[in-house]
Amino acid sequence: MVSYLSIPLYEKPHPTTSPSRPELSQAGRTVLVLGGSKGIGHAIARNFCAAGAAKVIIAARRPGVLEDAAVKLAEAFPKTEVVPRVCDMLNEQATDAFWDKISAGGPDAAVDVVVFSGCAMPAREPILKQGIARAWGDFEGNVHAPLRHLEKLYNQPHHEKKKFFLYVSTQDIHNWDSAPELPVYQLSKHAGTCAMQQVAREIPATDMQIISFHPGVVYTEAVEKTGYTRDSFPFTDENIPGQFAVWAASEEAAFLQGRFAWSNWDIDQVISGDIRKQIDADPYLLKTGVRGLIPVLLFGQTAQVGAMVAKQLQPEFEVIHFIYGSGWEAATAAELEPVLQGKEPKVSKPNDIGTHNYARPPRAIVFGRGYTPEQAQEVHDRYGHIAREAVAWVVGDPSKRPTLPLPDDYAERRAQEVKDVINGWLQEGATASKVLLY
């Protein structure tokens, strides 16, 4: 998921992903680009040639188009051996025969980098209108086929070095409104991207680096066949994903193992700074899936108000623990540290408020109106360093204290104020812990 990230986009190829950089050299490597005869795949193949790859194999179904593409690359990059191979990469039997031929060539024929740049041609129809049989074909092409090529790469009999597998995905895996007329394309590409991240959980980047990325909206033959014209979108320069693939097959990109990125992001902001800190701190950032509610630890004076506020914070936020009463300082010392570490605390004063789901540490600590900003700051200063991620420490603004008697909708109104403050912090990036007033 790409929630709470705001990264500038580049309209031209980024200097940091340039194939001319020595750090991105592909010298000595054999690169296989599946779908490399046209469009995005061809741009990726061209940039690997520019990065000095020893051999670039481009695989596609149409012999004539494939040969023409290979000739162009060979003429432009005479130091790279360009090999055209006819292969229906979405066909299981053709895939087996293709990789059997590579394996038969011995160690010299082994592949170091695979880029899966093809996709099943989507239908611009609702799922049930096009029919499940037609829809399932997209899953074969966008999930089964890349997994099969990934498996073949990993299990090569003559390759002990680090390998790289790059999956050309799409923004549609998270931006559902970008192409609602292509529901199965969105669904199957989402599943394919999820499959990549699941395999990456099992294999360290030192063995095989696996990264999925959105190439931008590039005008290709496939796009044209789907019914779009050059005026449909402000299309992306094809060298943006072309260069990004070269960078993704370098050690600089190892921190994105199993994750999803946009090829036209300002990559310098991803490599370093606050964005990088978020990535390093959060193993689920830039991955597909449902993160669920934002976990919150709540401080309050009474169980009655605590229960009402916890309920009002739903559905966006999940109160996982509640500390209250006159002994709150002792309870904080005993309970806050383990909760911030994602561990179950030894509770001195048990209560039924909160879910007691400690699998994820709180991203927000909320203090009720009975606490001062000075007390919140003191707790932050004493325990904030324990948190694995940035935490919002939210406390009432003294200048906005309610008057007695409290209105009937007091808990609802306070909860909404807290939501607004935390959501504002999240939208800013949620990269730094700070005390915030509501």
UniProtKB/TrEMBL annotation:
Superkingdom classification of source: Eukaryota
Pfam families: adh_short
Gene3D superfamilies (alphabetical): NAD(P)-binding Rossmann-like Domain
Molecular function GO labels: oxidoreductase activity
Keywords assigned by UniProt, alphabetized: Oxidoreductase
Keyword Metal-binding: no
Entry keyword annotation includes Oxidoreductase: yes
Similarity field: Belongs to the short-chain dehydrogenases/reductases (SDR) family.
Designated name of the protein: Uncharacterized protein
Organism taxonomic ancestry: Eukaryota, Fungi, Dikarya, Ascomycota, Pezizomycotina
